[in-house]
Design brief:
Helix content is about 20%, strand content about 25%. The chain is an alpha/beta fold and about 775 residues long. Keywords: Apoplast, Glycoprotein, Hydrolase, Protease, Secreted, Serine protease, Signal.
Length: about 775
C-alpha cells in the first residue's frame, strides 16, 4: 500500500512532509511502514510534479496499487541518490484546578484576569483527541476565530463540524500509520473490544486532559468524585485549541502519524504545539532518526513553540527523553495539594499514603492482611493478571508491589480474586514518590519505607490485620514543589552539552477534563463517568508549559520560540514554599539541574525576564554540524539543503540558557572550557546588568565582561564564560556531576543560568 499526496497537493505540503510513506511487507512478515525523506529539490525535470516522480521512482514497479516487496526493498531505497533517510515507523507512548495558581497566576490579577490575554494564540495538541462537549471547551464570550487560521474540523465517527466552536477551532485525526502497522485490516486492531472512534473524539481521556490543562475554560464545581473540588481552569483559558489525534487507545502513537500532524498543525497556523508523547526507558534515537525531533524542528524553524514531556522513567539517571535543543523538555513536580490516606496495622502503627478511592469506605473495620510475595512468586507479588489465589486473598486486604502493570489494574486483579482492599507498595526504584489513583477498591499507595514496614508486619505475626481510611483533599502542603520521582532525569544521553530537562512544571495529581468513553481508571471494566479526572505524569506537566507559552506569545508576539523558552528557564524557581532548595521526591535530598533543569516554571516572572538567550535556525544548523552531522544528514531534519562552516563549530556554544562543561576523565592538571553566550535586552532600554557567580565546588568560573550595559542602540551583548577544573580533584555527587549557576541582575530582574560540570570518558 503506497500512500502519496494527491497530484494536486500543494508544493508546500511536499516540502513540509516526510513523504512518501511506504508500507513494505512480504507474505511471511507483518507490515512495516517506512518514512522516506527525499530531497525534493532533486526532482528530475521530466516529471511535472513531485507526485509523478514519487509514483514512478519509488513504488514497486510490479504492483503500484498495493506495494508488496522483497524484504530488502527498504535497504535498496536507502541507496537511491535522492533518498536522504529511510526511517522505520515506530510506536511511541503517552507520558501519562489548583496548578495554574501554583505557577504564579493568583488572585485573578494580571494574566489571570478577565482580559483577552491568549485569545489571539492557538495551541495545537497532539494526543488522543478530545471530548468536545466538556465545559472546559466552551466558547462563551470568546471573540471571532483568528483570521489567519487555516485548519479544519474533520468529521468522523461521533464527531461533526458542530463539535468545533470558537474555542475548539480545529480537529483532525491521523491513522494511516496505525492502519499500515495493523496490516491494512482496518482502523483499529480490536483489543478486548475496546471502544475507539475513527475521528478526533477521544476514547482514552489523555488528550482531553492535556488540552484542558493547557487552555481549559473556567468550570465551576469541578472535582473527581469529590476530590480536588473547586474551579477547574487551564493555564491559558482564552487561548484557542486545535487537536490532532495521533494516538489510538491501546495502540500507541505511530511516528508517521505524528509527523503528519506536525506538518498539518504548522500549515493550519498554530502558535504552540503541545506533545506529551515520546519513547520509554530513556532510549533516544539520533535527531535525524527521531520523527518527533524532525517534526518539532519543522515547527520551531517556522516560529512555532514546541513543548514536550520529559518521560516517566525517573528517578533513573539519563532517563529524560525528547532531547532536541529546539524542543522545550518538561519534567514534573508536585503541587501543594494532596489526597492523603492512612493504613492502620494491627500492631498499632499508622502509615501515611495517598488515594483517590471514592467508593464505600472500610469504616475502620480491621481485615486480614496478606502479602502474596511471601510465596516467592514474582507475578503474585506484583498482583499480575491471574496470579492471585482466591482462596488465599478472599475477604482480605492484599499488599501488592508496584511495577510491571498499571497501578489501577492491580486493584482489579485483587477485586476479581475476592480481596476487599489493596495496599500498593513502592519499591526502591520509586522511593517515596506517590501519585493518587481512582481505584475500584479501597486502596492506599505507600512509599518504599512504609511498604517495607507493612511486609515486615505481615511476616511478624500469624494473624496480621489492617484497615484503610481516606482523608479527602488537603491543600497547603509543604514542602512544594518537589521533583516527582517518576520525572525523567538528566544527563542528556544524546548531547550532554545540552542540559535536559529544561525545567519542571506541575505534573502530580492534576485535575482536568476527561472523556465519557471510559471511567477514571481507564480500565475497560470501569463504567463510572466523570467530567474531570486526576492524573499524574510529565504528560500533565507539558501542557502547563504550553499554556504558559501561549500567554507569553500573546504578550510578546515578536518573541521567538527560543526567547520564550529562555524567559521561562532564566526566571524559573529552584526553591520550595518553605524557601528552601527543592528536593527530590525519590530520595528526599536536594534536587539538581539533572532533576529540574533550570527550575520550576514561574510564569509571572517569565513575562518580564529582562534578558533572553535567543537562537536562530542557523544556530541550530551550526550545532548539528558541531556534533558531527554532515549536510546531507542535517537535511533530513531541516528539509532544505544546508552547509557546515569550514571550521567545525563547538556544540557547547549554542546560545542555550544553561551551560554544561564536559571534562575528560583522563585529563591531567587543571583544564579550562570556554563558552560564548549572547543575551538580548527585552526590558528597559537603558539597563546595566551585573554578574553573580555560584561556582560548583572545586571549580573556578570566570565571566568577561562582568557587567553588561544596554542602551537604546545596543540591545545585544555577548560574554565569555571560562570554567576551570582539575578533574582529579573533583568530588562529584551521586549523579557524577557538580552544579552551580551564573546570574545577571539589574536590581529588578535576575537572569539565572544553571551550570553543570561533569567528566566524560575519552572516546
Amino acid at each position: 500500500m503506497a500512500r502519496f499526496p494527491s497530484p494536486s497537493a500543494p508544493f508546500l505540503f511536499l516540502l513540509f512532509s516526510l513523504l512518501p510513506l511506504l508500507s513494505l511487507s512480504t507474505v511471511d512478515q507483518p507490515y512495516k511502514t517506512y518514512i522516506i525523506r527525499i530531497d525534493s529539490q532533486s526532482k528530475p525535470s521530466i516529471f511535472p510534479t513531485h507526485y509523478h516522480w514519487y509514483t514512478a521512482e519509488f513504488t514497486n514497479p510490479l504492483k503500484s496499487s498495493t506495494l508488496t516487496t522483497p524484504p530488502d526493498h527498504a535497504a535498496t531505497l536507502s541507496q537511491h541518490p535522492s533518498v536522504l533517510a529511510v526511517i522505520e515507523d515506530q510506536r511511541q507512548q503517552l507520558h501519562t484546578t489548583r496548578s495554574p495558581q501554583f505557577l504564579g497566576l493568583r488572585n485573578q490579577r494580571g494574566l489571570w484576569s478577565e482580559s483577552d490575554y491568549g485569545s489571539d494564540v492557538i495551541i495545537g495538541v497532539l494526543d488522543t483527541g478530545i471530548w468536545p462537549e466538556r465545559r472546559s471547551f466552551s466558547d462563551a464570550n470568546l471573540g471571532p476565530v483568528p483570521a489567519r487560521w487555516k485548519g479544519i474540523c474533520e468529521v468522523g465517527e461521533r464527531f461533526t463540524a458542530r463539535n468545533c466552536n470558537k474555542k475548539l477551532i480545529g480537529a483532525r485525526f491521523f491513522i494511516k500509520g496505525h492502519e499500515a502497522a495493523s496490516g491494512g485490516v482496518g482502523p483499529i486492531t480490536p483489543i478486548n473490544e475496546t471502544v475507539e472512534f475513527k475521528s478526533p473524539r477521544d476514547a482514552d481521556g489523555h488528550g482531553t486532559h492535556t488540552a484542558s490543562t493547557a487552555a481549559g475554560r473556567h468550570a465551576f464545581g469541578a472535582s473527581m468524585e469529590g476530590y480536588a473540588a473547586g474551579i477547574a481552569k487551564g493555564v491559558a483559558p482564552k487561548a484557542r485549541l486545535a487537536v490532532y489525534k495521533v494516538c489510538w487507545k491501546n495502540a500507541g502513537c505511530f511516528d508517521s502519524d505524528i509527523l503528519a500532524a506536525f506538518d498539518a498543525a504548522v500549515k493550519d497556523g498554530v502558535d504552540v504545539i503541545s506533545i506529551s508523547i515520546g519513547g520509554g526507558d530513556g532510549i533516544s534515537a539520533p535527531y535525524y532518526l527521531d520523527p518527533i525531533a524532525i517534526g518539532a524542528y519543522g515547527a520551531s524553524s517556522r516560529g512555532v513553540f514546541v513543548s514536550s514531556s520529559a518521560g516517566n522513567d525517573g528517578p533513573n539517571l539519563m532517563s529524560v527523553t525528547n532531547l532536541a535543543p529546539w524542543i522545550v523538555t518538561v519534567g514534573a513536580g508536585t503541587i501543594d495539594r494532596n489526597f492523603p490516606a492512612d493504613v492502620a496495622l494491627g500492631n498499632g502503627k499508622k502509615l501515611s499514603g495517598v488515594s483517590l478511592y471514592a467508593g464505600s469506605p472500610l469504616s475502620g473495620k480491621m481485615y486480614p492482611l496478606v502479602y502474596p510475595g511471601k510465596s516467592g512468586v514474582l507475578s503474585a507479588s506484583l498482583c499480575m493478571e491471574n496470579s492471585l489465589d482466591p482462596i488465599t486473598v478472599r475477604g482480605k486486604i492484599v499488599v501488592c508491589d508496584r511495577g510491571s502493570s498499571a497501578r489501577v489494574a492491580k486493584g482489579l486483579v485483587v477485586k476479581k480474586a475476592g480481596g476487599v482492599g489493596m495496599i500498593l507498595a513502592n519499591g526502591i526504584s520509586n522511593g517515596e514518590g506517590l501519585v493518587g489513583d481512582a481505584h475500584l477498591i479501597p486502596t492506599c499507595a505507600l512509599g518504599s519505607d512504609e511498604g517495607d514496614a507493612v511486609k515486615a508486619y505481615v511476616s511478624s505475626t500469624s494473624n496480621p490485620v489492617a484497615t484503610i481510611s481516606f482523608k479527602g483533599t488537603v491543600v497547603g502542603i509543604k514542602p512544594a514543589p518537589v521533583v516527582a520521582s517518576f520525572s525523567g532525569r538528566g544527563p542528556n544521553g544524546l548531547s550532554p552539552e545540552i542540559l535536559k530537562p529544561d525545567l519542571i512544571a506541575p505534573g502530580v495529581n492534576i485535575l482536568a477534563a476527561w472523556t465519557d468513553a471510559v471511567g477514571p481508571t481507564g480500565l475497560d471494566s470501569d463504567t463510572r463517568k466523570t467530567e474531570f479526572n486526576i492524573l499524574s505524569g510529565t504528560s500533565m506537566a507539558c501542557p502547563h508549559v504550553s499554556g504558559a507559552a501561549a500567554l507569553l506569545k500573546s504578550a510578546h508576539p515578536d518573541w521567538s520560540p527560543a526567547a520564550i523558552r529562555s524567559a521561562m528557564m532564566t526566571t524559573a524557581n529552584t526553591f520550595n514554599n518553605l524557601n528552601q532548595p527543592m528536593t527530590d521526591e525519590a530520595t528526599g535530598n536536594s534536587s539538581s539541574p539533572y532533576d529540574l533543569g533550570a527550575g520550576h516554571l514561574t510564569l509571572d516572572r517569565a513575562m518580564d525576564p529582562g534578558l533572553v538567550y535567543d537562537i536562530t535556525n542557523n544556530d541550530y544548523v551550526n550545532y548539528l554540524c558541531g556534533i558531527g552531522y554532515g549536510p546531507r544528514v542535517i537535511q533530513v531534519i531541516t528539509r532544505s539543503p544546508v552547509s557546515c562552516p569550514a571550521k567545525k563549530p563547538l556544540p557547547e556554544n549554542l546560545n542555550y540558557p544553561s551551560i554544561a562543561a564536559l571534562f575528560s576523565s583522563s585529563a591531567k592538571g587543571a583544564k579550562s572550557k570556554t563558552f560564548i553566550r549572547t543575551v538580548t535586552n527585552v526590558g528597559q532600554p537603558n539597563a546595566v546588568y551585573r554578574l553573580t557567580v555560584q561556582a560548583p565546588k572545586g571549580v573556578t568560573v570566570t565571566v568577561k565582561p562582568p557587567k553588561l550595559v544596554f542602551t537604546e542602540a545596543v540591545k545585544k551583548r555577548s560574554f565569555i564564560v571560562t570554567i576551570t577544573a582539575n578533574t582529579r580533584n573533583l568530588i562529584l555527587d551521586d549523579s557524577g556531576a557538580l552544579f552551580g549557576s551564573i546570574s545577571w541582575s539589574d536590581g529588578k530582574h535576575v537572569v539565572r543560568s544553571p551550570i553543570v560540570v561533569t567528566q566524560i570518558d575519552p572516546m
